[in-house]
Amino acid sequence: MVAESASSTPTLCINTALVPITHGTIRATGIGTATGLPAGVTAAWASNTITISGTPTASGTFNYTIPLTGGCGTVNATGTITVTPNNTIARSSAVGTDAQTLCINTALTNITYTTTTATGATVTGLPGGVTGNWSANVVTITGTPSVAGTFTYTVTMTGGCTGGTNTITGTITVLPNNTIALSSGAGTNNQVVCMNTAMTPITFGTTTATGATVAGLPAGVTSNWSGNVVTISGTPTVTGFFDYTVTMTGGCTAGVNTATGQIRVDNTILLTSGAGSNNRTLCINTALSHITYGTTGATGATVTGLPTGVGGVWASNVVTISGTPSVSGTFNYTVTMTGGCSASPNTATGTITVVPTNTATLSSGPGSDNRVLCINTSLINITYATTIATGATVAGLPSGVTGTWNSNVVTISGTPSVSGTFNYSILLTGGCGTVNAIGTIIVRPNNTI
Question: Which among 128, 27, 109, 111 is positioned nearest to 74, based on CA atoms?
């Protein structure tokens, strides 16, 4: 006969000592071989009591049977021992997701862990904006980190049998957005230098970027990125204003990704009165439309080669050429800057062409501009040589007589068909000024009686 104890069907964790189970026996003299006990658990009989004890090393549900020996009949002691395995946790998201590197304010690729036997889990050490949740035996880490840094997180299971692997860790590295800042001193990003003179190096410190490019530098100046520092240096070989831009590459580009500055290489001189205005053509004694040049770096300027009546002055970094030429000719002028960086291109040139006033000069002989002849008699040609003009008209001639202009010569010719005194005038067209030449043709009528 067997009398069972109240603990004959216990549930316990693996590798945890079993609270002994006892069965009282009557008239038995011992026990046979016990079956169905988990490994690590044994049964023993003494003083009419079966004692089951030990530490189970295997998990599962174990229905045991212990036969009594001696006495009358066949009697077995039976029961069930349930051994729960220890908690387990294992990454179930893609390889490497538990060691992510991402940019701040960028969604995290979900990290998941599968758990067994636990009744819950907590996650600590996550960056702001990222959370961990346990549901249906799965821990999910998700969100968008709002702070930068390296975060080692720990997943800890709750409930179940915690004697096994109860935690797991991972790392989330959150990179800040790129930054760039001038590191070579206030104002060095905007420099004024002389051509062919080494500039003061300009440096910018960067973060998170993997490189940087610089556009807009003058010839002779280069840039280099190394150790998170952009260095701009060199000797400019051209003059002018150079607006450069530093652009970072790689890293987290949602932040400040560029920096700008200007390198001004003196001296410079630039025509500011309009394209082509440095070359002018005008009539003598006519006011010149101003020719202007903007200068940088210089402390003054001189202008040589101008026609009489025209001068050049420098004030407030502007050269102004103005006046009224009183002589004609072609004048090649030169503007030369003084002071500043004299090694730079220091001059500018142009041409002022002063056209003289039109002229008309009698070329058919003295007195030939005043002719007397009979009606219907051919006029001996009257000619005038002209300069500058592009044409001429003749007014006041008698009928039958005309004036023509060709190859800078006015020719008056023909046969007058009317009598009288005819005061003619020649008006030149084109060129400079209004020039008239005058003369008289007297046509006598035929004799009458």
Answer: 27
